[in-house]
Amino acid sequence: MLTLVALCVALLLLLWWFCTATSSRQNKSKLSSTINGPKPWPVIGSLHLLGTHETPFQAFTALSKLYGDIFSINLGSSRCVVVNNLDLIREVLITKGSDFGGRPDFLRFHKLFGGDRNNSLALCDWSALQKTRRSIARTYCSPRFTSLQYDTVSQVGIDEMNVFIKELQKLPTEQPCDIKPVVLAACANMFTQYMCSTSFSYDDREFQKAVRFFDEIFWEINQGYAVDFLPWLLPIYKGHMEKISNWAKEIRQFILSRIIDKHRSTLDYNSPPRDFTDALLMHLEEDPNMNWEHIIFELEDFIGGHSAIGNLVMVTLASIVNHPEVGNRIQKEIDTVTRGTRLPNLFDKAAMPYTEATIWETLRKASSPIVPHVASCDTEIDGFTVEKGTLIFINNYELNLGEQYWVDPEEFRPERFLTASGNVVKPAHFIPFSTGKRTCIGQRLVQCFSFLIVTTLLQQYNLATNGVAKTKPGCVAVPPDCFKFILTPRTKDDH
Question: Which residues form the signal peptide (predicted)?
């Protein structure tokens, strides 16, 4: 079988070479003639260069040392440009954001969203429809600190943390146990309660399955596959594509039957919306440009945000157990503020700057990639010609771990986000949620709910592992079945 595959690849390479050699000499792409970069191999382009590093963004950083802060690279049949410094990244995301509003046309993205990636807010091309969908969500996903929505977020979080603690108490102590399902269930319930006025038992099998599939998809989106750039490999990935499509279908059915149908039967169009779900359903009736699929996919998109928070929490906890002094300092901060008489809440954030700084430092070290952009027209970056359809990689790995931006960037130091007076400060080059019009609309919920889970867990337990909790560089996701933690309940003497 392997011999047959190798022979087929060799024949394809030869065919491609003979068919394109003459035309490429006569009609060179504007991209390759204007922006420097590695010379591509036939068929695969420069994909082989990415395989020499643990993450593609490490490879991009290494290539930038050879070709400069902006360089071109062919990945399979895709023309790509990589930008590696803050000024160039700002030009792409802010100054010329309207020129780079597209997203990669990966087959996997279509499979995850009912055959059309434009059903997803994060993976769609920019359009008037997507602008409308974001505007509906903004009130709920970006609550202001002084707003009633923020009060609601805080109360939802407090209520769920009481349930979360009871669920943690069911787990074995003093031995490695898998806490990720409980963390993810808590995150999911905070999202469904806040956005849908609905929560679920942690023992609900349908709920468990939906949470697991969301987590599988989050891990999936954070991986790269050869088929993204070599679509002719699709037959080899057929089983994988069917699997991720089925995950998405199961999730959609759960949301429809357990959330949306319930809302539709009780919705009062003459009253203010009770939550985000009501707002979506009401908008469906008012806006002729919106259809039923837009509604269910938008709700799926935002409920799915709980997976990002659950994974961020797991990576943060991994950082804490790998650096015990950080966990000890967070616990002292929690004990000082709550005095052990109550659970932490969102209004404690300002009094817990070190804890907040730890989450920022986790995001910096994890350096989760910004979703690539695509040029929606012929345009320029730094005076270089960029053709319509060119895929743009934003190398925030360099922003997060480059020596020109940070002192001792490989070390885990939450205090780098604190001023001398102890206030949280984020440098301009630190953009973990991207920037510009496609910045992550749910970033405030990410900050709120991750803070609650980390502080609640560390208030109640000391954490340890057998060995080191291993995470993947350039990725805020951890595998659905990942490292385990040893939970030891804290005593009064610990506080």
Answer: 1-21
pLDDT tens digits along 105-150: 999 999 988 888 988 888 889 888 788 888 888 888 877 777 788 8
How many folded domains does the chain comprise? 1
Residue 9 counted as domain residue? no
Taking each helix axis as running N to C, give the angle between helix 353-366 and helix 324-338, from 0 to 180 degrees, rounded to the nearest 10: 150
DSSP states along 83-119: E-SHHHHHIIIIITGGGG-B----HHHHHHTTT-GGG
* pLDDT of 8 strictly over 60: no
**Residue with structure tokens 């005095």?**
339
Other C-beta atoms lying within 10 Å of the C-beta of residue 118: 17
- Please check whether residue 350 lies inside any domain of the structure: yes
Q: What angle do CA 181, 366, 424 make, to 5 degrees?
A: 100
**What is d(CA 369, CA 493) in angstroms, rounded to the nearest whole number?**
42
* E-state strands within 103-172: none
CATH label of the domain that carries residue 59: 1.10.630.10
**Cα–Cα dist 193/203, whole Å:** 17
- Across 173-182, average pLDDT: 95
Check residue 6 and give its pLDDT: 41
Largest CA distance in the chain: 78
3-state SS assignment for residue 463: strand
* Res 391: pLDDT: 97
Cβ-count burial of 269 within 10 angstroms (0-12 exposed, 13-18 middle, 19+ buried)? exposed
Query: What is the domain range of residue 351?
Result: 37-494
* Among the listed residues 360, 355, 352, 392, the one whose alpha carbon sits nearest the alpha carbon of residue 376: 392
Give 39's Cβ-side CA count (13 Å radius).
Answer: 1
Per-residue pLDDT of 260-274, as tens digits, reads 998 888 989 889 999
Is 196 annotated as a binding-site member?
A: no
336 located within any domain = yes
Comparing C-alpha atoms, which of 363, 310, 307 is closest to residue 179? 310
DSSP, collapsed to helix, strand or coil, labels residue 363 as helix
Q: What is the pLDDT of residue 122?
A: 85
Length of the chain as a residue count: 495
Q: Could you give the CA distance from residue 51 to residue 59 in angstroms, rounded to a whole number? A: 8
**Nearest by Cα to 390 from 60, 47, 80:** 80
Considering the chain, what percentage of its residues have pLDDT values greater than 70? 93
Q: How far is CA 95 from the centre of its chain?
A: 24
State the average pLDDT for the chain. 89
Helix 238-255 vs helix 205-221: crossing angle, to nearest 10: 130
Residue 224 is assigned to a structural domain of this protein: yes
Cβ atoms of 459 and 491 within 8 Å: the answer is no
8 A C-beta contact, residue 357 and residue 330: no
Read off φ and ψ for residue 349, nearest 5 degrees: -55, -45
- Please write the tens of the pLDDT for every residue from 341-387: 899 999 999 999 999 999 999 999 998 888 999 999 999 999 999 99
Q: DSSP class of residue 197? A: S
